[in-house]
Each structure stands twice: as structure tokens, then as C-alpha cells.
Specification:
Elements (H helix, E strand, L loop, with lengths): L1 E6 L1 E4 L5 H8 L7 E4 L8 H4 L4 H4 L9 E2 L12 E2 L21 H11 L6 H11 E3 L13 E3 L7 H12 L15 E4 L4 E2 L2 E2 L2 H9 L5 E4 L2 E8 L6 E8 L2 E7 L6 E4 L2 H11 L2 E2 L1 H4 L8 E2 L11 E8 L6 H4 L3 H14 L11 E5 L10 E6 L15 E8 L7 E3 L10 E3 L6 H18 L10 E4 L7 H11 E3 L31 E3 L14 H17 L1
Parallel strand pairs: 1-14, 2-3, 2-15, 3-11, 6-7, 15-26, 16-17
Antiparallel strand pairs: 4-5, 8-19, 9-10, 12-13, 13-14, 18-21, 18-24, 18-25, 19-20, 20-21, 22-23
Helix pairs in contact: 1-7, 1-14, 5-14, 12-13
InterPro entries: FAD/NAD-bd_sf (IPR036188), GMC_OxRdtase (IPR012132), GMC_OxRdtase_N (IPR000172), GMC_OxRtase_C (IPR007867)
Protein name: GMC oxidoreductase
Family: Belongs to the GMC oxidoreductase family.
């Protein structure tokens, strides 16, 4: 072992949670903090240009390049499963949409944990504390925080017409999806600053890195946690840097802690390699069991989007604008001169939250609408004018899993989201496709003669629509829940309500894996809010 140093806090993973933790915990100059990241620095230009996600996903420079298992609910297909491997983590490659979810999401966390600190009211205070909102501060939004929330810097006529059609279909117009009830249609707010992507490395780590009490180690893959099998104290971490096995120790005698922020996939891998997980899974791999916690890697939840594509006439979309050399030149010039236009685009511009059926108690589906279309991610845009209306079930009842099947820290895990595995999810999928058709049939879009290209009008019955959902469904990159927090009497709860690992001392998991249930929207901002909560706990002690 080399490079043995001792720190008050060791943070594993410099993503949406880890970068915030590093900023908050180093505010006390007497605390030494180590931040370990498997990826490289975020000085790759495509990370910072908003449309650059196209060149970051499935690129080893910024992505772990995971894939799912073949999914029965997706008619046997496997999906790319991007996870950030770079400073900023998934915030460096995600869709930049700023979304908190619904008030009811947080009330369900209170029910799951018995801890009112997770209530909507308390969560809202945390969001406002790190927020720098594009308008004046008010009862819903904060001003002056590190995290810039901006309006998008472009509009598309086809998006405006879809918005009008959604209103005609009974979905009210909205200018803010972050007030606790996001029912409505409007343009998303985005995590950008003056037309550039804002990742958590830029927002939180850049200032913290100037502090002498923060050490950042990149390109270092954590092998496992150092845990005393007798006392169950987590007192450090083993990692691999430049082919060398290294270790860092945690000053647990002074109240130090190891904070695992590897994400809903990565944190599971590290816990299982360290002997924390289901004994039934670890024993065949020859891993000594330190804590038999069957919930590790279970309870995987994700948002499955159903990408419906409609051809249109008489109105321009990005398909035709970006398919000519002149068009591409003009797009590039607009971004260089104004930081606006298609290169400033989040992957989805227009959003809508709706009820798939009247029996739902709150909006249960989310739309990501785009003025473009393509066969699948990474391929060229279609040659015809079209838009895409992707719809996802916000509160899926399907539960999947992620587990290692090798002790090699570079080996990919087995990711099985188990999409569309419940009757409820299949029902909502069919309802969602019908709702999209209802919106597109409204008068606002009629002049453009929308024609359903995917999945196709031949799918009509519930059974046919579920099959269609399996054909066009793809992840929207929101895995959560694999180390869920919960009450002491919940045998599947990996964490208590303060995100401490059950049965292990001085170890917390601080990332989206802690969510007992998925939020009703995009998951980056809730992950930052979770980190803010743990920072509160640690800095007040």
C-alpha cells in the first residue's frame, strides 16, 4: 500500500452529491477532506457546451459506459446506461433540467423513514439555500446560491404549438414546475450559466479546491472500504491509482466519516466489494460478509421514457436545420456569438406533467418534448421534419436490481431495471401513449398534419400498446433507490434516515441510491438536496 494519509472526511465520488459535500465540509478549516473520483478532470470541452452530452455519453472520457441486461419488458432489448465518470459525475453529462419533484414525493420519504426532516417544507429550504434563481427570490426560490437556475435560451415554433395543444387537451400552462405540484406544460428551467452547462464541479468544487484542507484525487478507482470486521468501524478506503494499490484512512476517533457518493450504481458496487450486502450474493463471489444487508442493490427504480415521433409539414424542426452544412455552420456561429440556439439546448426543451388517468391523485407522467427525431441515441437525425414527445411514468411500481458479479473494480455490474414488470406500469404505459395521441390530435397542431411515425397507429389495444412501449421505451437516466433509507423495522432498508449504513459505524451513503422512492421528475437536484441534508448533520455536530 502507498500514499497512506489520514482525513476527517473521505468522500467517494465527485458527482452531484460529492462535490457539494466537499464544498460544505471544507468550510471548517480544521477539517481535512479527501475527495476521490474515478474519472478525469472536467476540462473536456464537450462537457461544458450544452449539446455536448451527445459526445460525452458512451464516451470513456466521461462515462462508465454501462449497459442493462436484456429486459423482458423491452422485448429483449438491452439499453445504454450512462453514468458519469468525471469530475461533476452525472451532472457533467445529464440533461441539465432543474426539477425538484412533487411535495407528495417527500411526504412518502417521511412515511418510509419516520423522519420529518425529509418533508417537502424542509427540503424546500435546502433547495433555496443553494439556488441562484433566474428571477427574484420568492417563497419558492432562492437567490445567491451556487447553483444557477436559468431560463432556456431558445424557443421553437413547433414546441409552442405542442404547448398550445397540451393546453387544449386540459393541461394548464405553467412557468414553474418546482412549486410542489408540477401539473402543467411549459419550458423547463435548466442548470446553465450564460449558455454554458453548469455541473457540480464548476458550481461547488471550483471554490472548494482553493482551500488547503481539501485534497482531490482523480483517476482513482475505489476497490473497497476498510472495515474492521470485529468493531464494524469503517476507517478508510482502498483505491487504485496509476496501477498502484493505495489507501487513505479516516480519523474516526475524532468523529470522522467515510461518505460514499458513487451513485445508485457505483455505491452498490463498492459496498458489495467491501462485504456489505446480501450474504447469498456475496458468498458465491468469495467476499467475506461484514454486514448482511439484503437491500443493497435492490429497489432499483428508473424512469422509462416512451419516445413517440411525429412527422410534420409546413413548420421547421431541427431535423432539417441540422442536416445541411450551411445549417450546421449557422448553428455553430449562433452559439459562438450569442451562446444561444441549438448548441445551447438541453436534450429536452418543453416539458409537461399530466395525469394518465383520472384515478391518479397527482400528475403521474412527464413529457420531454424535442424539435427533432432520430432512430436511437447516437444516430443521425431523420431527414424529414419531425418532433419527439417522450413520456415517462413518474412513479413506477416496477423494481429492479444492480449487483456485481466480479470482484474486479473495473468489471461492469449486472443492471436489471425490470421495466414494465407490473400490471400498473403496463397500464400507465398504454394510457400514456393514448394521452400523447390526444394531445397531438388537438387543433393547435392540425395545420401541420402530424403523422405518427413511432410507434405507429397500428398499435391500438392495451396489449398492442404495451408491446409498442417495449419497442420504443428507453431509460431517461434516473436510477435511484438501491441503498434506500428506511425505518429500523424495514429489513430491506440499507440506511437509517440520516443515511448511516446499518450495522456499520462511520459510514454513510449520500446519493440518489438513498431515495426510498423515486421523485416525480428529474433526479439531479434532489440528489444535491440529499447532500445538503447530510452536510447539515455533519457540520452541526
Amino acid at each position: 500500500m502507498t500514499q497512506t494519509n489520514t482525513y476527517d472526511y473521505i468522500i467517494i465520488g465527485a458527482g452531484s452529491a460529492g462535490c457539494m459535500l466537499a464544498k460544505r465540509l471544507t468550510e471548517n478549516p480544521n477539517k481535512k477532506v479527501l475527495l476521490i473520483e474515478a474519472g478525469k478532470n472536467d476540462n473536456y470541452i464537450w462537457i461544458h457546451i450544452p449539446v455536448g452530452y451527445l459526445y460525452c455519453i458512451d464516451n470513456p472520457r466521461a462515462d462508465w459506459r454501462f449497459k442493462t441486461a436484456n429486459e423482458k419488458g423491452l422485448n429483449g432489448r438491452s439499453l445504454l446506461y450512462p453514468r458519469g465518470r468525471v469530475l461533476g459525475g452525472c451532472s457533467s453529462i445529464n440533461g441539465m433540467i432543474y426539477m425538484r419533484g412533487q411535495a407528495g414525493d417527500y411526504e412518502s420519504w417521511v412515511q418510509a423513514t419516520g423522519d420529518d426532516s425529509w418533508s417537502w417544507e424542509n427540503a424546500l429550504k435546502r433547495y433555496m439555500s443553494f439556488e441562484d434563481y433566474h428571477s427574484a427570490a420568492n417563497q419558492w426560490h432562492g437567490k445567491g446560491g451556487e447553483w444557477t437556475v436559468s431560463k432556456q435560451r431558445l424557443r421553437w415554433p413547433i414546441m409552442d404549438r405542442f404547448k398550445d395543444a397540451a393546453v387544449q387537451a386540459g393541461i394548464p400552462a405553467s412557468d414553474d414546475f418546482n412549486r410542489g405540484d408540477n401539473f402543467g406544460v411549459g419550458y423547463f428551467d435548466v442548470s446553465q450559466r450564460a449558455g454554458w452547462r453548469l455541473n457540480t464541479s464548476k458550481a461547488f468544487l471550483r471554490d472548494a479546491a482553493k482551500r488547503s484542507n481539501l485534497t482531490i484525487i482523480t483517476e482513482a478507482v475505489v476497490n473497497k472500504l476498510k472495515i474492521d470486521p470485529i468493531t464494524k468501524n469503517c476507517y478508510g478506503v482502498e483505491y487504485i491509482k496509476n496501477g498502484q494499490s493505495c489507501e487513505a484512512l479516516c480519523a474516526i476517533e475524532q468523529g470522522g466519516e467515510v461518505l460514499l457518493s458513487g451513485g445508485a450504481i457505483g455505491s452498490v458496487q463498492i459496498l458489495e466489494r467491501s462485504g456489505i450486502g446480501s450474504a447469498a450474493h456475496l458468498n458465491p463471489l468469495g467476499i467475506p460478509v461484514i454486514a448482511d444487508l439484503p437491500g443493497v442493490g435492490e429497489n432499483l427504480q428508473d424512469h422509462l421514457q416512451l419516445r413517440m415521433v411525429y412527422k410534420v409539414n409546413g413548420i421547421k424542426t431541427l431535423n432539417t436545420k441540422a442536416n445541411t452544412l450551411w445549417g450546421k455552420m449557422m448553428i455553430g456561429l449562433e452559439y459562438v456569438l450569442k451562446r444561444s440556439g441549438p448548441m445551447s439546448m438541453a436534450p429536452s426543451q418543453l416539458g409537461a406533467f399530466a395525469y394518465s388517468s383520472p384515478e391518479q391523485k397527482s400528475a403521474n407522467v412527464e413529457y420531454h418534448v424535442q424539435p427533432l427525431s432520430l432512430e436511437k441515441f447516437g444516430e443521425d437525425l431523420h431527414s424529414f421534419n419531425a418532433f419527439t414527445a417522450s413520456v415517462c411514468n413518474l412513479r413506477p411500481t416496477s423494481r429492479g436490481s444492480v449487483h456485481i458479479n466480479s470482484i474486479d473494480p473495473e468489471a461492469p455490474p449486472v443492471i436489471s431495471p425490470n421495466y414494465l414488470s407490473t400490471d400498473e406500469d403496463r397500464k400507465v404505459a398504454a394510457e400514456s401513449l393514448r394521452l400523447t395521441r390526444k394531445i397531438v390530435e388537438q387543433a393547435a397542431l392540425a395545420p401541420f398534419a402530424p403523422e405518427e411515425y413511432k410507434p405507429g397507429v397500428q398499435y391500438q389495444t392495451d396489449e398492442e400498446l404495451v408491446k409498442a412501449a417495449g419497442n420504443i421505451g428507453t431509460t431517461i437516466f434516473h436510477p435511484v433507490g438501491t441503498c434506500k433509507m428506511g425505518r429500523a423495522d424495514d429489513p430491506m432498508a440499507v440506511l437509517d434516515s440520516q443515511l448511516r449504513v446499518r450495522g456499520i459505524h462511520h459510514l454513510r451513503v449520500v446519493d440518489a441510491s438513498a431515495m426510498p422512492t423515486i421523485t416525480s421528475g428529474n433526479t439531479a437536484a434532489p440528489t444535491m438536496m440529499i447532500a445538503e441534508r447530510v452536510a447539515e448533520l455533519l457540520t452541526r455536530e
